[in-house]
Each structure stands twice: as C-alpha cells, then as structure tokens.
Specification:
The complex is a heterodimer. By secondary structure, chain A is mainly β. Chain A contains 3 helices and 16 strands. Chain A has one domain: monomeric porin ompg (Porin, Beta Barrel). The radius of gyration of chain A is 19 Å and the shape is globular. Chain A starts with 5 loop residues before the first helix and ends with a strand. Chain B is mostly helical. The model of chain B has no long low-confidence stretch (mean pLDDT 93). Classes of the chains: A mainly beta, B mainly alpha. At the A-B interface, strand 12 of A face helix 7 and helix 8 of B. The complex binds protoporphyrin IX containing FE. Chain B: Pfam families: Bac_globin (PF01152). Chain B: Heme binds at residue 108.
C-alpha cells in the first residue's frame, strides 16, 4: 500500500506509535463522524477558520487518536497551503503541528520580493478540554469548553521588521466553547483569542501601530444535514497592527463531508479581505483530513 | 412499607412468553430515562407503532451482528430487550405506551460499556432510523433525548 502523500506515511507512522492498543481496555477508534471537527487553518480541530473546543482525532477518553490534514486556499492574488497533524489524547488534550506556506505569486514580483516569494510559518498548538461533552450533554446548555495556546514562528523576520512588524514569533491564547444542539441539528462555536498575530502570524506579531495583545473573536455555526454532511459559516476578527496595510476580518461559508469514517473533505468560500495592501482576497478553502 | 409493596407488585409481574425472569424492581415510566415529547409530530415521523417496531428490530439486529459491540449482547435476553426498547421508544415519542423496563443504570450496570460502544450503538440506531425513512432532523431530536443516558450506560 504505497502512500501517495508523504503525509499519509507520517500518519501511518503515528498510528503505529500510538499506544492505543497497549492496554486491553483500549480499543481503536470510536468517535462519531464529524464530532472531532475538521482541521482549522492553524491545525487545531475546528472549522476552517475557527478553532473549536473539540479534541482532534477519532479516539474517545479510552484512547489516543490523531489526524492529519492538507489544506489549499487559492485566493485572488495569493494562495495559502497548510499541512499538519494532531494527536488527541483521551479526548482531553490535543497537540498539533502545522506548517503554512503563503505564496505571493505575482504580488511578490511587484513588491520586489520575487515572483512566488513565500511567507512560511510553523504553528505548534496545545489544547486542553476543561469541561463538558459537546455531543452527549444534550440535557444541559453547558458547552464543551477548552483552553489552549498556539506558538507560531514566521520565517521572514527581516521583511516582517522592514514593514513594521515587531516580532517574528508569538503565542496566541484561546478559550473555546463548542456545543452541538442535537435537537436543532446545530453545531455552534465561539472562541476568544488573545493574539498579536498579523495575518495569522505570517506577517509577524505586533507592529508599528500596536504591539500588545488584543482579544479577537472567531465563531462558527453549522447545520447537520445528514449523518455525514454539515454546512455552515464562520467569522474571525483579527488585529490591525501594521501601519502599511489594513487588516480585515475573515469569513467563510463551508460544507464538511465525511467521505468515510476516517476521511473528511471541507470545501468553503472564504473571504480574507485585504492582505498586505492587496484588497479582495477571496477564494476557495479546500481541505482533506484523515483521522484515526 | 412502600418497598415491600413494590416488591410484591414486581414479583406478581408475569414473565412474558419467551423471556427470562429478572430481579424485582419498581416499575415506572421514569425508568425510561427521558421526558416524552409533546404532541404527535415525532410519533408520526417515526411511523407510529409499526415504524417503531421495525426500527427497534432493525436496530437490535444490527447490534447483535455488530463486530464491535455484538459480543456484549451474547447470552442476554434479546426477547425482553426488543419488547422493552419498543416500549421505551414509544413512550419517549409520545406514542401512548407505558415503559415497563428497568432504569438505564440498572439495565447496563454489569455490561462494562465504553463510550466507544455507545457511539457504535448510536450509529446502528441512525442506520435503523434511516432505513425506516425517519427524517434526519427528527432522528437528531430523538437522539438528543437518548444522549444524556450516556452517564448511566457508560460505566468505565
Ligand atoms: C441511550 C442508549 C441506550 C438505551 C436507550 C438503551 C436501552 C435499553 C433498554 C430499554 C434495555 C432493557 C431494560 C430492561 O431489560 O429492563 C436495555 C438493555 C440492554 N442494553 Fe441498552 N440501551 C442503551 C445503550 C446500550 C449500549 C451502548 C449497549 C452496549 C453496547 C447496550 C446493551 C444492552 C444490553 C446487552 C442489554 C440487556 C441487559 C440485560 O438483559 O441484562 N445498551 N438497554
């Protein structure tokens, strides 16, 4: 079974290293489809733009699961590619790594950086479920609540400083509440993020206008249409720290489809607004995820 | 006095044909573990008595044959399970039945059920409801009633 993507090889490696089969008590797999969300752009389990309180991977509190994703976001003038993997431990802790590659295409040439110049970023995430069970607590309004942090390191420090960015790395902190209202077939999420990130961190952290943390909001609402299909929308506010370019809020409208128990596809229309002075960055958000 | 009366009432309960006797317990609709729906729309969505019979039979057949949870049903009183499940579903869907079975805690206490087993069972129920043509939103409203029973069913 030669894996087509190196990512799948990584996944297989993770699966083998997983101690889920170590104890007799632990049996592999077991979450209901889509109840581990999909991989957000920063690698944490969530919607596309928003991080959710759900723990990634297909395991319950009796095991260790994981997920891997590739995401491609072609925009009007740029494109973003991200890939990464996450481990979900006992449905309690999620650890994730994602690499984002932001390609400037022709804009890179216009800015004198060179055509196809890329801004890359590594994101290391950790999430802890504090309370609640988004799926089964249907007799209470209490959502599933998680807290977490994402350490981000952007690779273009020199350029980031040249355009007024203060740092090339930073850490976001978030509190996330996710609720599945089964009686209404709805999935709702609200997340507050303390961040200094410019364009998710690709343009660094803090800047000539502001260099302090601000509270930003990201939220999702989705309707479960079938056991395997959810459609919804998301919105996410972002700081506006850089003097040279205004930064806008982002939103999307998405459909997430569970192709099999272990593979899901997300397709969205996304609007990231103005990026580095180039307005109207709208396009598609396409993500393939596998979880176990 | 009350426990004695309840015990008497329970021991006086005839064992339906094909079923095995169970330890005496207090009968009550509250044992069903959920408040019933108001109105008739859910009962209609599940195609009433005949629909609930087909759904429960299809659901139990899937559970018994299931590679993951089938083992848990081995040697259990499946005749009784079908009957009490039909009563429970009918009661919750406001189909006018009384529930004569045990509480969820009592019925599942010795089974060692994990969350994963519960999730498998939910999928089997979803398949059985879909086979009956129950609209997806109605399926979810019903599952929302069953979901909180997890804390009584999942013991480890
Ligand atoms: C919300 C979920 C569930 C509901 C509504 C439910 C309902 C019931 C009912 C009504 C009974 C019969 C009670 C009686 O005999 O008085 C029963 C028994 C039983 N259930 Fe469940 N159940 C659920 C979850 C599960 C799960 C997850 C499993 C295993 C995977 C399971 C396995 C069994 C077995 C084996 C029996 C027979 C026990 C015996 O006869 O001693 N149930 N259940």
């Amino acid at each position: 079974m030669p894996p087509r993507l190196p990512l799948l090889a990584l996944l297989a490696g993770l699966a083998l290293a997983t101690p889920a089969q170590a104890g007799q008590e632990m049996r592999a797999g077991g979450k209901l489809v889509l109840t581990d969300g999909v991989s957000s752009v920063e690698g944490a389990a969530g919607g596309g733009l928003a991080t959710w309180a759900l723990i990634g991977g297909n395991e319950t509190r009796d095991g260790i699961g994981g997920s891997a994703h590739v995401t491609y976001v072609p925009l009007a003038d740029y494109s973003l590619t991200s890939y990464g993997a996450a481990i979900g431990i006992m449905d309690r802790v999620e650890l994730s790594y994602t690499r984002q590659v932001f390609d400037t295409h022709e804009v890179g040439a216009a800015l004198g950086l060179g055509k196809g110049f890329t801004f890359d970023q590594d994101v290391l995430g950790a999430k802890l479920r504090l309370l609640g069970d988004a799926v089964y607590d249907q007799d209470s309004w209490l959502p599933q609540v998680s807290v977490g942090a994402q350490y981000k390191h952007a690779n273009r420090g020199t350029i980031i400083h040249a355009v007024g960015g203060a740092h090339d790395s930073g850490t976001d902190f978030f509190v996330s509440a996710t609720k599945i209202l089964l009686g209404q077939s709805l999935v709702l999420d609200g997340t507050v993020r303390a961040t200094k990130a410019n364009q998710f961190g690709l343009l660094g952290f803090g800047g000539d206008r502001h260099d302090s943390y601000s509270a930003q909001f990201e939220g999702s609402a989705a309707v479960l249409l079938t056991r395997k299909l959810a459609v919804g929308g998301e919105a996410r506010t972002k700081p506006d720290n850089l003097g040279f370019a205004r930064e806008d809020a982002a939103w999307d409208a998405f459909a997430a489809y569970a192709v099999t128990k272990n593979v899901s596809l997300t397709a969205a229309y996304v609007d990231l607004g103005s990026i580095a002075t180039v307005k109207g960055q709208r396009g598609a958000f396409l993500s393939l995820q596998t979880s176990f | 006095m009350l426990p004695v009366l309840l015990a008497l009432a329970a021991s006086a309960m005839p064992v339906p044909p094909g079923e095995q006797p169970v330890d005496p317990y207090a009968q009550s609709d509250a044992n069903a573990g959920a408040m019933r729906f108001q109105g008739q729309s859910m009962w209609h969505a599940f195609h009433e008595q005949a629909g609930v019979q087909r759904i429960v039979d299809g659901f139990v057949d899937r559970d018994i044959a299931d590679p993951v949870i089938g083992e848990i049903f081995k040697g259990q009183d499946i005749v009784r399970l079908r009957r009490t499940l039909k009563e429970q579903f009918c009661y919750i869907l406001n189909g006018g039945c009384a529930y004569s079975g045990r509480t969820m805690k009592e019925a599942h206490k010795n089974l060692g059920i994990q969350i994963k087993d519960m999730n498998v069972l939910v999928v089997n129920l979803q398949k059985a409801m879909a086979a009956e043509g129950v609209p997806f939103f109605a399926q979810n409203r019903f599952l929302a009633k069953l979901a909180p029973m997890k804390k009584d069913v999942v013991v480890r």
